[in-house]
Amino acid sequence: MPSSRARYVTVCQQLLTLGVVLAVVTPAANIVSLDVVQRAPVTTAPTALAAYAATTTLKSEVPSGVVDPIVTEVPLTAPVGGVRGRTLAGAPQARIVAGKGGGAQLTSLPQAVSGYGAVGVTWGKGPELSKKQIQVHVRTETDDAWTEWMPVAYDAEHGPDPRSEEAKHSRPGTDALLVGDVDEVQVKVTTPQGAAPADLKLAVIAPGEPTATKVEAPAIDTRESEAPTSARTAPVPTTDPPVEDPVADPAAPGAIEMQAATFTPKPVIYSRAQWGADERMRDKSSLHYFEVHAGFVHHTVNANNYTKAQVPGLLRSIYAYHTRSRGWSDIGYNYLVDRFGRIWEGRYGGVDRPVVGAHTLGYNDYSFAMSAIGNYDIAKPSDAMVQAYGALFAWKLSLHGVSASSRSQQVGRKSFQAINGHRDADSTACPGKYLYAKIPQIRTLAAAAQRGWAGRELESNLTFTPHPDLIIRRTSDQQAFVLPLRGTGGKAPYRIARPIATGVSLVGVNKVLNAGDWNRDGHGDMIYRRTNGYLYLRLGTGRGTFSGPRLLSTAFKKVQLLAAVGDATGDGWPDLMGQPQGSSMRIYPGTGVKPLSAGYVAAGKVTATRQIAVGRMDVDGAPDVLFRGSGKVTLSRGNGPGGLTSTRAMSVNLTPYDWIVGISDVGLTGHSDLVVRQTSTKALYLIEMTASGFGAPKLLGQGLGGYDLAG
After folding, report:
1. Is 584 helix (H, G, I), strand (E, B) or coil?
2. DSSP track, 491-519
3. CB of 386 within 8 A of CB of 437?
4. CB-based burial of residue 279 (10 Å sphere; 0-12 exposed, 13-18 middle, 19+ buried)?
5. How far apart are CA 194 and CA 99, in angstroms?
6. pLDDT value at position 221?
7. Does residue 669 register a pLDDT over 60?
8. Cα–Cα distance for residue pair 260/252, rounded to 1 Å
9. Strands 60-63 and 213-216
10. Integer Cα distance of 346 and 659 in angstroms
């Protein structure tokens, strides 16, 4: 089911109190799908994040505009027959000494360094070299005094995924080593088992100097201007033009008191512009998105004694080395954090989007990474840095529907915890022994910030796939099937897969709900109502099958517009919403496998033919619903916790469709989507939603005329 859905979270007042976000469940007359949105009660942020919270109010000196770094590439060995337009003029600037057993040692001529410099070594493509086959050391000179030789990290696992377009243009090489403010640098390359590789180059990077600087706070800060205090008791009335409104005034007698949801801001982040990034250096055509199932902790393996003012230059050096020397499309990391706890935007594409980076070879499509600026094999990370990791990972994982405490996330071919060090995925020392030792603490901080929230593995994960699943019923024998949605990566990015038999008979059933993770065991579940009004729960196994029925209630025969709307009450459990005949709209709070109560009034009487649960369409984190009736579609916003608030008409024509199903955010735009079936052709389409409307239908597949789901 949706393994990576764009979600918005709730993080505390002073900083992180992550409540949850996003619910979607869709009952429709014929097919049902859901994506649960769990929102927790507001809690106090962990005091351990206090140091990070302080950084949210800090201002820093940053460049006033774009600053261009200067990359000087020095040839150390000759290319073999030229290297696709990358040959350099001039003879190799190094001396080579043959070693024992056919090995060699190459030492470059000293090269001048300008500014707070960085160096790296790259070479032409060929058979992958292991760490035993090539060792790189560097030394620097300041005021005529040379340092000892220092190792430069070479990690073949740092880079774009092997078969990606980005990898086709990349060069093997070391990490960038930030050598600091020195006069000269010299590199030594040792290949114990053979000759030095062809087209070997030393890159010396000067970060450039800004013409002017300014002092300002982080530019990426989406905290709401309205103070996240307690409640407003009355909902704000809609200001839209008068329309035929299916929901009565929620403030009318009998309506419950409603509270405004506390909204969680993102951790504040310094933007690319604030470190002077020249956007012309990146390959704009290579930007792409996929999914976020987990996060990785890295380090940049460089000097640790930098000042606050030097950090923008360090980032420009890494950016220049990655793009101009390594041939990557952009800086490899999604985020970077300095020793002062400040978070910086890395790869372009949106800090809240699942931007595919070049950081953890083989796993980039399914993860994100934040790299700590420094070498944490030789130094311990600051408390502020560790706290920044906890805050950022809590927010980012929640945004994509992942619990920070999850111990099993499918990331490509393997399963990982939600938060990992790079060495957990590859044979590498990254992120250094001292930072790696902090991974358990980072997990604890992030999980505490998400306290009370049920993450991705607690959603409607019917088949352990990264995209939503639907539940359908075969008309010939009334058997239930799971209909998975698959990503294709092509021009038609999504398609339906072959239906999976569940073994559940729906004979005598007139309403089926994809209930999300009703009992919070990590698997999606199913709720259905028989014609006698009895409501049953079947717990999902995660393999497209379900356990035996459990009775939830005997009193739902006359409940109309019944939908599984997600966590409307804010207690972390999925809920139902429905309207008893002739009465008002009610919330039926879910409590796992326990029987349902009579619930409470959520709004006045609704006049509509269908309720469609759509999760979060606005920014408050509470689940919303669509009502269809008299040829019109109206959005009623959830006010979280408690009920429905303002309504407005939506501009969308749903009359051609007999199935209308709300699903989670397929395209990761921050809003839930619809799956519809055309009445005439029985073809299935995806309609992506935004806060203001609906996109054009996109074909998912055909041949579903033999299925139905009575509602």
Report:
1. coil
2. SS-EEE---EEEEEE-TTEEEEEEEESTT
3. no
4. exposed
5. 9
6. 74
7. no
8. 18
9. antiparallel
10. 42
